[in-house]
Structures are given as C-alpha cells and as structure tokens.
C-alpha cells in the first residue's frame, strides 16, 4: 500500500484531530529532547481509545509501515524519534490521558498511557496517597513512556523502578490484539507475568495503553539534608550509617561531585549552603511517624564525629528543601551551559563505586586530556551519571568505549535508567553477553515477527 493510501485509511479510522500530516505539525515529533536524533515521520496518529490504537496498528501492519510509539518525548536515548525514511508512523498516546480510577483502600490508580506523570502524582496526592515515581522530567513525561522505559528517578532506593509499581497493564500487540490485564491485584501468579515483557522494552514489543499502578501512603514528615564528604568511600560509609539509623525511611541518597556543584553555582546562580568539598551527598527521608528529624540530626552528628562527613546542613523549611534539590536537579542544565558533553548513565554494584570512579577518572584523564569530569547520581542505587565535558572534536564513541569497558570490569550496566533507544544499540551489542542478545532477539521475533514496532531501537532492525 502506498503512503498516501495508508494516510487515507488512517484518516478514516480517526476523528478530525486524530491525524497530523502537515510538516509544521510533524516537526516536534521529528527530534528528541537532547537534539541528538532527528527523523521524518510520515504522519502522527493520535487515537482516543484502545480500539483506535488497535485499528491504527493493524492498518500500519497491513501497509508495511513501522510504528514509533511516542509519549512526552523526554527520553534520553532517542527511542521515540522516527528514522528519516519518511515512512514511519508516529503513534502518540497524548489524547488517552484519563485517570480512570483511584482506589483508596487498595491504594491503586488506573491511568491511561498519555497521562502526564505530574498530573497522576497530583491526583494521588489529592487522595492523601503518593505515586512514588519522581524525576526532573515529570511535568512532561507520560505514563506510557515512563513504563516503556522502566524509568528510575530519585526515590528508587525506597520505592523501586517504575516496573515495581505496576500491578496491571493493557497493551496492543503487533497483530492488533488488545490484551486487557488491568487487574488491581498485588498477588497474581496465574501464569506468566507477561506485563514485564512490555515494561522497559521501549516500544519495541507493543503499545502500552493503560496501567494499574500501586500507590503508597503519603509520608507526613520529611527531612532533607546535605553533607560534605571527602571522597566516595566516605559517601558509602554515610550511606551505610543512614541505612542503619533511618533505613526504612530513606527516599533518596544522591552523590554530587564538588566539580558538578561548582558548575551549578557558576551557570545557574544557585548558592551552595556548604563550603567547597570534593563530594556532597543529598539525603531525603520520609515517615508518617514523628521523630524523624531527631533521628536524622543524630545521624548527622554521628557521621561528623567519625569524620565521614566534614560538614552538613538539615533543611529547616520546605523552601530550603526545594533549594537543596534545585542544586541536584540543575546539574544537567549547568553541564550543557559549560559545553558539549558525552553522557554515561551507568550502574555498578554499590561497593564498587569508589573503585569505578577512581579507575574511570584515571583512564579518561590519560586518554583524553582536557576533558572535564561531571559525576553525580543516585548512588544509593549504584547509578552514576558519569558525564564528560569535552573539547570540540572529541571522539564520543572512543570515550564511551573507555568508560563502558570499565563499567563491565566492575560488574555494571551501561544503561542504568535511560534505556537503549537508538543511542546505545552498538554499545549494548558490544557489552552484553551474546546469549542475552540471542534471547532478546527471540522475544522480539515472537512478539513482533515483522519488526513493526520501533525498528532499530534497543536491538538492530529485524
Ligand atoms: C530533565 C530530564 C530528567 C530526567 N530524569 C530521569 C531520571 O531521573 N530517571 C529516568 O529514568 N529517566 C529520566 N529522564 C528520561 C525520561 O524522562 C524518561 O525516560 C521517561 O520515562 C520518558 O517518558 P516519555 O513519556 O517522555 O517517553 P518518550 O520519550 O516519548 O518515549 C520513551 C520511549 O518509550 C516508548 N514509548 C512511549 N510511550 C509508549 C507507549 N505508550 N507504549 C509503548 N512504548 C512507548 C518510545 O517509543 C520510546 O522508546 C529524564 C529526562 C529529562 C529530559
């Protein structure tokens, strides 16, 4: 079927606002958030119901045109960007954004894939509940994108990755079937847990249309503190002390290098509450019981006494809490103002963090003089954003290889939370054991034999 015939079919399936074909309307769907990838969609389909999603998938399949699922376009690996063939159909879930139900007894939410994460968080909060997925892109990222990338964020330490919040899922598969698994059950061992195949598969196996998410009680007391620590070893000692003292309340334990915060104060005009230090940690804890603040202050006194931290501050108000988090969340923007950066979103087992950082700093310094290291991350999860600000003309692939080889030496992963998309396919094939790649290809062929969904993302196109 020709492209124009497919467009005519899609127009017949969708309402007046359901199909974009004008170049100006297609433009925002043709590039990713970082501006690394660009492509040319044939058109953008905007269905309103799961039945319409199914009909679009069937029409594209019959016409032999690939489908690229699209959420809030905040992904950092180019997964939602079509190629430049002008043949791929972008399928945006943005018009399927309803919050269908919140169950305050079971603490669950049934929410359509196009709902913006922040809207879902606010709806939970209005019922005194917490949707514990939080990341700096929450004002734009959509539930379908969040689940399809198995997003992490800053409170994985306590609540797990997005995957761990999903009780039920509805998907449309490559044969157009609607698989309705919107169960509100914590316990369900009746056969394969097939929803896990789609979560984190970055739109390569099926279209997520709706989900049932497990909410959590909203902690009534919160403490946020920032500590200066001499090195990464000391940061791990503070983490251990915090786990022992207030471990069940720890939401976040973030590591930031002094160099990263220096960029923040230079480019974002934000003031650091502590004197310069090689490293800092940001800790957040929450509890419904009183006494958390006293316990956190005792922890601070203990680690200062032992010399594991050299200085520290506990936020006295919500405004101060926000100011401390602003430092952490401004690092990426400050980095982009400093110059071109080559980013690595890696994880290693927590005890390996100091050795990995030392080895990577040494290897990068030796092989690429003039590179500025900007390291920070969710250290309580073993996840380091090991970003390198590089001189013009630096070879990004060579830098990737140096860093990722060390990640493998230390038993880590080359993508902790940002996925593979089209950005890391080559590095995935290079770094992952071949039986794992063979298994992944088998799953892809079983669920999407014609390679309809997101070809060339996560794995090479079939
Ligand atoms: C400032 C900033 C901070 C960030 N911080 C974090 C962080 O802390 N942790 C983290 O994990 N990520 C982070 N990210 C990355 C990003 O926010 C997440 O990957 C997010 O989950 C993407 O959601 P989205 O709706 O924007 O998806 P998109 O970018 O639109 O799509 C992402 C992938 O999911 C697929 N997809 C989208 N919707 C569907 C669907 N309904 N069905 C099937 N496939 C679908 C797409 O094809 C693509 O492969 C950050 C991004 C930014 C810009």
Write the layout of secondary structure elements.
Elements: H1 3-13, E1 19-20, H2 23-26, E2 43-45, H3 50-63, E3 67-70, E4 89-92, E5 99-103, E6 108-112, H4 117-126, E7 129-130, H5 143-148, H6 156-159, E8 166-172, E9 178-181, H7 195-198, E10 207-214, E11 216-217, E12 221-229, H8 232-246, E13 250-257, H9 258-267, E14 279-287, H10 292-305, E15 311-314, H11 318-329, H12 331-338, E16 341-342, E17 345-347, H13 353-367, E18 372-378, E19 383-389, H14 396-409, H15 425-431, H16 434-447
Parallel strand pairs: 2-4, 3-4
Antiparallel strand pairs: 1-2, 5-6, 6-10, 7-11, 8-9, 8-10, 12-14, 12-15, 13-14, 13-18, 16-19, 17-19, 18-19
Helix pairs in contact: 1-3, 8-10, 9-12, 13-14
Bound molecules: flavin-adenine dinucleotide.
The site of flavin-adenine dinucleotide has 37 residues, from strand 3, helix 5 and strand 10.
Quick structural overview:
With 462 residues, this protein is an alpha+beta fold. It has helices at residues 3-13, 23-26, 50-63, 117-126, 143-148, 156-159, 195-198, 232-246, 258-267, 292-305, 318-329, 331-338, 353-367, 396-409, 425-431, 434-447; strands at residues 19-20, 43-45, 67-70, 89-92, 99-103, 108-112, 129-130, 166-172, 178-181, 207-214, 216-217, 221-229, 250-257, 279-287, 311-314, 341-342, 345-347, 372-378, 383-389. A hairpin with a 5-residue loop joins strand 8 (166-172) and strand 9.
Structural overview:
The chain is an alpha+beta fold. It has 16 helices and 19 strands. The strands form four sheets. Strands 12, 13, 14, 15, 16, 17, 18 and 19 form an eight-stranded antiparallel β-sheet that branches. A five-stranded antiparallel β-sheet has the order 5-6-10-8-9. The radius of gyration is 23 Å and the shape is globular. The protein starts with a helix and ends in a 15-residue tail after the last helix. The model has no long low-confidence stretch (mean pLDDT 96). Flavin-adenine dinucleotide (FAD) binds next to strand 3, helix 5 and strand 10.
